[in-house]
Amino acid sequence: MTISLDFLSVLAQWPLLATGVLWTLWLTAVAMVFGLVVAVACARARNTGPAWIAIPVGAYVELIRNTPFIVQLFFVFFGLPAIGVRLSPATASVIAMVLNLGAYGTEIIRAGLLATPRGQIEAARSLALTETQVFTRVVLPPALKRVWPALTSQIIIVMLGSAVCGQIATEELSYAANVISAMNFRTFESYIVATLIYLLLAIGLRRLLNWAGPRFVFGS
Amino acid sequence: MSVAADASHRPPIVEIAGLRKSFGDNEVLKGIDLKIAPGEVVAIIGKSGSGKSTLLRCINGLETFQSGGLTVDGKALLHDSAAAMRALRQRVGMIFQSFNLFPHLTVGRNVMLAPTLVKKAGRGTAEAQARRLLDRVGLAEKFDAMPDQLSGGQQQRVAIARALAMEPAVLLCDEITSALDPELVGEVLRVVESLADEGMTLLMVTHEMAFARKVSDRVVFMHQGRVHEMGPPEALFGAPQTPELQQFLSSLHD
Amino acid sequence: MVDFSLWDILRNLILSARWTLVLSLIAFVGGGVVGAAFLVLRIWRPAVFDRPVGAYVQLFQGTPLLMQIFLSYFGLRLFGVQVSVWVSVSLALTLYTSAFLTEIWRGCVAAIPKGQWEASTSLALSFGEQLRHVILPQALRIAIPPTVGFVVQVIKGTALASVVGFVELTRAGNMIANVTYAPFTVFACVALTYFIMCYPISLYARHLERKLHVRGG
Description:
The complex is a heterotrimer of chains A (220), B (254) and C (217).
Chain A: H1 8-11, H2 14-48, H3 51-65, H4 69-79, H5 89-114, H6 118-126, H7 131-161, H8 173-184, H9 187-217
Helix pairs in contact in A: 2-3, 2-5, 2-8, 3-5, 4-5, 5-7, 6-7, 7-9, 8-9
Chain B: H1 4-7, E1 14-23, E2 26-36, E3 41-46, H2 52-59, E4 67-72, E5 75-76, H3 82-91, E6 92-95, H4 107-117, H5 123-136, H6 152-164, E7 170-174, H7 182-197, E8 201-205, H8 209-215, E9 218-223, E10 226-231, H9 233-238, H10 243-252
Parallel strand pairs in B: 3-8, 3-9, 6-7, 7-8
Antiparallel strand pairs in B: 1-2, 1-4, 4-5, 9-10
Helix pairs in contact in B: 4-5, 4-6, 5-6, 6-7
Chain C: H1 6-44, H2 46-61, H3 65-78, H4 85-110, H5 114-122, H6 127-157, H7 169-180, H8 183-214
C-alpha cells in the first residue's frame, strides 16, 4: 500500500497557519505578562503574607498544579456560564493560561525569592528603603534572574499547552490545523506542519526570552 | 629503604617512551621517557600544570595519549580493548586526591567490591581479605562504618586498602595527602611508607618533600611537560642542577 | 429531563478515573523502560547516542502533547495500521514520558562526581559493573523525587487523550456535563478528582526531596 503525503496543500493554506501562529503568540504574550504579575504577587504573598492570604494563595497554586490545563480551560469556558459568566473562547483561553502560568510561576519565583542572601535585605533596610522598595528594587530583580531559565521553560510549556485552546475554537495554531484538515482531509500532514511550527516557536521563544530577560526584566 | 638496588637488574615494570599527550591544542606531555623497576619507589614533583597527574593517569589508562609507547608488565596499552584495559587495571592500582570512596557502600563493601566482581572471589574470601587489609591500614574496627562517618585520613586509608585488595603490582598515588588536614597527613604517609618497605612499586605525585626524600629511591622533577631532572633524592633535593628545580624547591620554603 | 444527583455524577467520574490511572500506569512503565534504555545508551556510547537521544528529547519537550497524540492517532491509521485508541494514545504517552524521564535521569547520573567513575574504572570494573554497583545506586537516590513528581505530569497528560475520544476522566466529564446541563458542577468534580489523585503524589515527591537533602545527598 503506498502512502502519498501531500504537504503542499497544507502549506498552501499558509495564511490560516500564519493567523494561527499569531494567535498563539498573542495568547502566550498576554498570558506571560499577566501571569508573571500574578506569580510575583502570589509568591510574595505566600512567602511573607499573613495566613489569611497565604493559605488561599497556596490552595490556588496547588489546585492548578494538580489538575490538567484542559480541565481548567473547560471549567472556565463551559463551567462559568452556568453561574452567569459567559466568555469568548479567546478570553477564556487567556484567563486559563494566566491562572495556569500564575500558579506554576508562583512556585518558581518563590524559590528564587527564598534564595535571596540575608545581607541584601538587611543592607537595603539600613539604607531606609521602604519594604516595597526593598522588594521591587533589591530582592525581585536578582530573584528573577536566578530563576529565569526555569521561568522560561514554564512559559514555553504554557505556549505549547495553548494548543488545547483550539478545542474550544480559539483560532490558534492547532485550530488552524484542524480547519485545514477539514478542508483538504490531509489530517496527518496538517498536524505534522503544525507540530514543526510549534517546535520552531518553542526554540525561538526560548532564544527570545533568554535575550529579553536581562534587557527588560531583571536588568543584568 | 627498598629493594631498588637489585631491582634494576629485572626488566622494568613500567616503561614509557616518547609519550606525548595533548588536551586539544594544549600539549601537556612533550615526550616522556621513564623506566620504573619493580619495587622501586618513585616520587614525581613539579609545579601544577607540569603534567605530573596527567602522566600518572596515562599509566592506568584514565587518560589516552597521542603518541609514544607505554608498557606495563611487558604489555603495551591498548586503549581500544576493554578487556586489555581491565587486565591493566588489575595490575595497576590508583589512589586519588579526593579518595573517591563509594558513599552508598560500607567501608568493608568498598574494599570487597572489586575482588568480588572482577576477580570473582567468593564472599567469604573477599571479606577475610578486606578485614586483613583494613587491619593493615589500622582501620579494622571500621568495617561496617559508612564512608561519611570517617575522617579524611581514615577515608584515604580505606582507599588504599581498596586498591590493595586487587593485589596490584604498581600503585599510583595522585597527590593523596593534598586534600587532607595537616594533622591527618601523617597517618596516610605511614601506611604508604610501610607499603614501600614491603617492596611495592610506587609512583607518587606528591608535594610532601620530606616524605619523598625519606621514602623514595628516585625523584623525578617535571617541568612544562618534560622530565627536567631525575635522580636519587639526596642529589635532587641536596644539589639541584637546573635553575627551574632550584626555583621550585626554594618556592616551597616560602 | 432526568435529575442527576451529585453522587451520580461523582460515581461516574470515579469509575472513569480508573482508565486515567490505567493509562498513566502504562505510560509510566513503558516510558520508564524506554527512557532507561536511552539513558544507558547515552552513557555507554556518548559519541554515538548523545545527539540522537538529545534530539528525541527536544522533539517531545518542544511540541505540544496534544499534537503528539493527534499524530499518533492519525498517523498510525494513515500507514494502514488499524489500531484502537488505546494503542495510539498509549504509544504517544509512552514516548512522551520516555523523553522526559530519560532527561531527568540523565541529570541525576551527571550529578554523580566524576571521581566515582574514575575510582571504579581504576579498580578494573567493567562498564556494566560500574553502572550496576557504583553509579546507578547513587543516581537512583537522587532520581526518585523528580521521578515521583513526574507521575503527576503523566496523570494530567492523560486528560488530553479525551480529545481523540479515549474515555477517561475528562471525556467522561464532557459527556456527563452535556447530559446533566451542569457543567460548573461537573467540571468542578472532574478537577477535584484529578486533585485527589495528584496532590498526595505531589506531597510525597516533595517529602522525598526534603528527605534527600536533609541526609546530605
